[in-house]
Amino acid sequence: MANIGGQGQQIIILPEGTERLLGRDAQRMNIMAGKALAETVRTTLGPKGMDKMLVDGLGDIVVTNDGVTILKEMDIEHPAAKMLVEVAKTQEDEVGDGTTTAVIIAGELLKKSEELLEMEIHPTIISMGYRKAALKAQEILESISIDAVDSDTLKMIAMTAMTGKGTEKAREPLAELIVKAVQMVEEDGEVDKDQININRIQGATVEESQIVNGVVIDKGRLDPAMPKKVENAKIALLKYPIEVKSLETDAKIKLTDPSQMQAFIEQEETMVRDMVDKVIESGANVLFCQKGIDDLAQHYLAREGILAVKRVRKSDIERLEKATGARVATNLEDLTSDDLGIAGKVYEKKIFDEVLLFVEDCIEPKAVSLILRGSTKHVAEEVERAVDDAIGVVAATLEDGKVVAGGGAPEIAIAKGLKDYADTISGREQLAIGAFAKALEVVPKTLAENAGLDSIDALVDLRAAHESSAYMGLNVFTGDVTDMKEAGVIEPQRVKKQAIQSASEAAEMILRIDDMIASNKTPMPDEGMGGMPGGMPPMM
Length: 540
Hints:
It is a single chain. With about 550 residues, this protein is α+β, with helices and mostly antiparallel strands. The chain has three domains: about 20-145 and about 405-520, Orthogonal Bundle (GROEL, domain 1); about 150-210 and about 365-400, TCP-1-like chaperonin intermediate domain (GROEL, domain 2), CATH 3.30.260; about 215-245 and about 260-365, 3-Layer(bba) Sandwich (GroEL), CATH 3.50.7. It is about 45% helix and about 20% strand. The protein has 17 helices and 21 strands. The strands form seven sheets. Strands 9, 10, 11, 12, 13, 14 and 15 form a seven-stranded mixed beta sheet that branches. Strands 6-17-20 form a three-stranded antiparallel beta sheet. The chain has a three-stranded mixed beta sheet with strand order 7-16-8. A hairpin with a 5-residue loop joins strand 4 (about 50-55) and strand 5. This is Thermosome. Keywords: ATP-binding, Chaperone, Nucleotide-binding.
């Protein structure tokens, strides 16, 4: 409840139970939440980052060091912390990697802004300084980027993305599969990542993962009488169900004679048979249906030697279109031989305990499948997350054609450029730009800390090395400052560009909040909660 006093009279403008934080209290709480969230994922950054084990209310376990996965699985209540989770999700959607980087940069920007607020610098001034710094950072990033899109570069990009994750021991063969898959689905300089289907199967080592020149469907044939393998497959894709439609409205059929019942059943059978005949007339020997297929229709299809699958996901139907060249028929009446796709073979195969249907040997397929293996369920899941990140960065590199050195090199180069830029700006914004530059150094600093190195020495050495080259980064395995371009440790420019931009915008938005009003249905975040301020469960 909020009251405004005037001439001794109270005016109630908010419902009872509403809580409110004003001015510095609101800013302090939001900044604390952002800092705490960044600290939660910070230890996962880099090749020597550690993993988190997350257990949900049902007892399901997730073991990962993927930033966005950690944040999605955690039950976060604080509104400002939720805004940083959105930063990670956006990073994941736009690039596929760099989620942890984006969150820790945002957290560090908030931390540095707290120091400026203590100096009585207005939040709007800090936000304006951050905005100018972010724009300048993009310019500096462009100047230190490297033009390269050859297969070797793409492979190094994929290997860098998978370093420090569960796939590290098999990162080289996996990188080859990923680059091949991305190049196969690339069309006119753009990559639709949805056309790369990932099937995760446990029960073998990561090295046994493979690429399929076509599509893998996680379903088997409908009937054991259907052929298990079809050579020179002519594939029909159907949205229409092969079954008698039930009436949408309540209806009753009154039968007065047993012969009428028999005629009714025979009519249904005739309708189903006519539907199957349409498929046969088209010349198809493989059928994928997005809807249901009647048991009687299955019998007729099996008798004609047609391999059929029902209730195929829409995404799989779209991949089959891209891979085989088939056109989806929305009505059986419209199905002709011109709508059929072509594949060298379609066959059913059991891998571990899963029955899969392989559509292989397609002509220039624009959809492919990866079968990822792992010794256990949790290993396989982490392999999938790592490969998904690698696909994202390879696709981004192929589309943009620009990469940057890894190992914290771009952050140090941008910080150096921003410090010089700050000297050209008058007024208090200069301090905000300087704070932005220092905040970016959290990336190499964290890389050093996670590797057990002295972060101060690492930063000093990096700054000195950048007087001669913008490609000098931290080799966390040796502790030395190395030319990352020569070492093959490179990342897409888009990862850094998106991380800096989204982190800056989130920090600016949080800084401009000076009033938090929580309704009585939403309890105000409690600073006293263990672990995370603002009601987040003390998981870490």
